[in-house]
Design goal:
By secondary structure, the protein is mainly alpha-helical. The protein contains six helices and two strands, in the order H-H-H-E-H-H-H-E. It has helices spanning 2-19, 33-36, 39-42, 56-60, 67-80, 97-103, and strands at 49-50, 107-108. The chain is globular, with a radius of gyration of 20 Å.
Length: 110
């Protein structure tokens, strides 16, 4: 998710920089079409994190997953084998309904 925010911010800066008039140029009266384009059209889709293959660093890049929760995911995976569904993350200490809801669209088990 951090990549989406970074890419959207970079795209915004580049579009703004292109729109700002340079010295000696007249100001534009209307914003170019690129400024009004939705961010989704600019930013590419980010691949989901496979919780059955991800290491601690990749897991900690997810929102709400710190060092302790990443370690708990890895330990659960070691003790129980691969997750069969994203809902299995609820079995990990530190992951409840709210955190799972935030992760659901960002992770996969395949």
């Amino acid at each position: 998710m951090g990549h989406k925010i970074w890419i959207a911010a970079l795209a915004s800066v580049l579009v703004f920089a292109a729109w700002v008039p340079t010295a000696g140029a007249q100001a534009k009266t209307a914003a170019p079409a690129a400024v009004t384009a939705p961010a989704a059209a600019v930013a590419p889709a980010v691949a989901k994190v496979n919780v059955n293959k991800a290491g601690a660093a990749e897991l900690m890049a997810l929102p709400g997953i710190g060092e302790a929760t990443a370690a708990a995911i890895l330990e659960y995976r070691k003790a129980n084998g691969p997750f069969k569904s994203v809902n299995d993350l609820m079995q990990v200490k530190g992951i409840g309904e709210k955190k799972l809801a935030a992760l659901r669209d960002l992770v996969t088990v395949e």
